[in-house]
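Summary for the steering committee. The consortium agreed at its last meeting that each partner would contribute one worked example illustrating the joint modelling workflow. Our contribution is presented below. We chose a case with several input lines so that the handling of multiple components could be demonstrated. No manual editing was applied between input and output; the record is shown as generated.
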Amino acid sequence: MTHHESKAPVRVQQEDFSQDEEVLALRASSKRIGGIATFTGCARDYSEGREVTRISFDAYGSMALAEMNRLREEAITKFELLDARLVHRVGVVAAGEKIVFIAAGAEHRGPAFDACRWLIDELKQRVPIWKKEITPEGDEWVTQHP
Amino acid sequence: MIRVLFFGPVAERVQTREMQLEFTTGMTLHDVAARVGAQHPSVFGIVSFIAVNQNQVHDRQMALHDNDEIALMAKFSGG
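What follows is the complete predicted structure of the assembly.
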C-alpha cells in the first residue's frame, strides 16, 4: 500500500489489522486533531470458567457494514469528531489475537474518549455479528454482551 | 420471492443460511417468522431481532414486498 492509498474507515474483514496504520490514516484526515482515543478488543483465552482456544465470528456482512457506517456518522455528529475508524474481524480469531478496533479523533481528549467508549458499546448492541467460543470441551455461541 | 437469511446460532439451528419463500400479496413479517418457526421450532427461543433489507424492524405486522431480504437474528455478540 502506498502512502496515498488508504483503506476505508469502516471495514469488516477476515485479515488482521494494524493499529498503527489506522491511527496514521486517522491523523492524515485532519491536522486539527488534538486527541485520538482507541479501543482494541482481543480474543480472551478464558471465558465462563473454560479455556478458549479460538473464537469464530459470523456476520450479516452487508448490514454489519451499513450499521458500522451509521455508527461512525452518528459519533462524528454527536461528539463533534474530526474523524473515526471502525474495523471488525470475522472468521476464526485465535486466543490473544485482535478482534475489533475503534479510533476516534477530536480536537480535544474528552470527546475522543467519550466517542470511543460510545462506539464500542453501541457496536456490541447494534452490529449483527455473532461469536462462537471454541473450547476443548466443545463450541458455544455467546449470547450475552458484557 | 422472499429471501430469508440466517446467521450464527440461528443458522446452526436451522441448518441452512438461506431459505426462499414464495411472495404472496399481503404477506407480513409475522407470516415469514411463523413459516420458519413452524419448520424449525427451535429458532423461536433465540430470534431477538428481525431485519428487512438490512434495517432492523420492530413491527412484525409490516407488509413485505417481492424480493425483500429478511434476516431472523439472535442477540448480537460482536466486539
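The interface with chain B takes residues 41, 57-60, 62-64, 66, 88, 99-100, 120, 123-132, 141-145 of chain A (CB under 8 Å). The radius of gyration of chain A is 16 Å.
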